Records
---
Amino acid sequence: MPYDLKEVAAISGMPGLYRLLKPTRAGVIIEALDGKGTRSVASARNKVSLLHEISIYTQDYDQTVPLTEVFDRIHQKHGAELSLTHKSDDRDLTSFMADIMPDYDRDRVYMSDIKKLVQWYNTVSKHLEYQAPAEDEAPATEEAAEQPKAGKKKAAKQDEATADEALSTAGIIPAAEETNAAGSPEAATEAKTAKKATKKKAE
């Protein structure tokens, strides 16, 4: 992914973004994504929202766009530095959002969501390295070609299931189980069965 957001999170009651380092008995050790790298412990009581599990509503009620993809769109059009901030004029922010996501849901994505999106992007683009996507090439195997399809089907169901679990408002929502598609227990079981079959043939 262009920006690796797997370990980056927004934490309730704490301003800014944080990198999750490791869990502790009391919560999780975090590092502020502000250039200073200040470390602290987020209590288990704090709500931790991983950015790569967050999506934004579109006009298609059952479809959302992952935040990682939205960040990539912003980078493609504006680069790492935005002329906007979360304090910019509402009209400019609305115009920016429509340019990045023409199909975003105007009823369920609030101005507070757009401001949060801009604020998060400005933080991430300053402190994380942008990696050009290298997955546009043809899959090397048939299995690699099939995995994205399975992922999309599961993601669609999960988006629908979590549509009422807003992070702070109705515009930006978590897709909490989206990353589990690649590590499906069913896929693991099939792999073990295939290995056993191979051993028997060899014998």
Note: The chain has one domain: 1-203.
---
Amino acid sequence: MSLPEIIKKAGITEDRWQESVDNHDVAREEYDGVFYYRVMRKIGPLGKGSIVTEDGILFDFPRIARILHLENGLKNAYTQPFYVEEKVDGYNVRIVRIQGKVIAFSRGAYVCPFSTDRIADFLDVQKIFDEYPDLIVCGEFAGPDNPYNIEHPPYVQEDIRFFTFDLMVKNTPENIPIEERLRIFDKYSMPTVRRFGCFSSSDISSLKEIIKELNDAGSEGIVFKPTRREEKTLKYVTFGSCLRDIRVTAPLMAELPSEYFTHRIIRAAIYSYEQLHELNHKNFTALGEVLLKPIYESVSKAARGELIRETFLLRFRKEENVQRMIGHLQRCKVNFEVLSQEKINSYWHVRFARKCYASYEILQSHLGGTSHVD
């Protein structure tokens, strides 16, 4: 199918499409000989993050609303039963076959060379896409050795794993109905997020037990998926997840919006009110430590003239994808250097350092006595 036919099916005229291209609302991209358009601003039904190819449209993955009070949030949202799954702390990708090549797209519609390289470790991509050529596998890469997310699930202690959580189809914004989704997961032995079963909003005691278990284990939270299509998917996170988010980002507090931290403190407060029914010295100490200790360490580094940086290790199946990943980071304006690259058994192990110039310069300015108005 030609591109004009593809966009026409989405209700977009050729003139409107060309106007969007001219205004840089969409960008024409190429990866390994595959050409596609990345949507950067909403055009008709295509939201930011959508991908347009001659094989069809990948609609943007929907943002999931959050509830902070578990019991009241569920009662407000659901009249029918819903499925409960673990929310895995990683980064979101959509896996699809385009022009004969299996590619992993990020939420922002960039091709991730690292995820594209590694997906065959976790999915039988040949069989899946031969039998379902229009399928889009939505999932989470998670683990300590990834390029985007410092935090990771407690049960992934090295490298990465892939967890499928949804399925979509080209040319439609809707997810495949959940019962059909589960059947396909099992048919192809896809690794999935942990599934707890089907519940209703009256099962609050059981759900609180699940949350407590996940919080004690160091996991992020849960996702609620409705059986009634008119109702929406929701997410809810643990107290520990709020603290871990703060801890891993606090070293760069000087350059981040204050809302990032206040939102997580509010989540932790409401979680404590509903689930713990009190605050104690341990809670106060934990919050103070994750807020103050990392930024204090960044101040100390800046005072010594030591650049603030984050290091991460990536494992690649193919050496050419190392260079593609380097190009991807450069395109995304990430300041980094490659510290080492070596072949160990079947994988190329590449260690990177992300350089945090903005935080370093802000803290150096403050330490130097520069005045400012806040």
Note: The chain has a mean pLDDT of 95.
---
Amino acid sequence: MHARQEEIEGVLEHLLPGATASPARLHEAMRYAVLGGGKRVRPLLAYAGGEAAGAERSRVARVAAAVEMVHAYSLVHDDLPCMDDDVLRRGRATCHVAYDEATALLVGDALQSLAFQVLVEEPLCERAADQLHMVLLLAGAIGSRGMAGGQAIDLASTGREVTLPELENMHIRKTGELIRASVLLGARCGCLQHGEALESLDRFAKCAGLAFQVVDDVLDADSDSATLGKTAGKDARQNKSTYVSLLGISQARQFAAELREQALQALNGFGDEANRLRQLIDFIVLRRH
């Protein structure tokens, strides 16, 4: 995992515009938002999905970079005063605090655009039509029916109690869809473009995405800012419904454990080539930050 984290850091360093290239302040802020922090869970899942499908690692690296750029952009926008209004991310000042709100807005815009550029400027699979499907997969995962839509539902739900199905729908969109796309994009760089094996990876990824958010809710309620590298207890202060507020910490942890078992069962048809995915679902559910 450490080796892959170092590898994706180098890939991102290379693909991002240089800090002194014009417009320098924007490029410096983009690098600030992306480099030097984070668990890199989405790139790790892309690498693991690629490994399960026998993909070339150099191709998967570009997918891993693209999903991390999208994730970083979503964090920059999520922290803005008009959204969650947060000041701490990955153990340091959020982008709009370190720079300014207008720059942070442009950072998110530019990172999303760059992610799609990275996804299309080199061949990532054998057929152009399959690569086009990869673009559609990422676009769908982060649009109004995916991540952006989930954020809209989240904002509309603040201050009111939602049902468990409503909460699950929100988080499948807001968090789960990009995690799902990370696994599937990695796999599509290899031999899996359709069929039962890809459907199994899809089931794994859906469980992993939801489990990630359940654990995030638990950690927000049960950890501190220094450990998390972001503001702890934010959900309760903003009166947001979470898996903890609806189920309690113990039941939320149990739900995450059940999702872990479902994710592992989805990989039963795979051999050792899926071991990284198995290890990553353990990491997602058992992490402490």
Note: The mean pLDDT is 93.
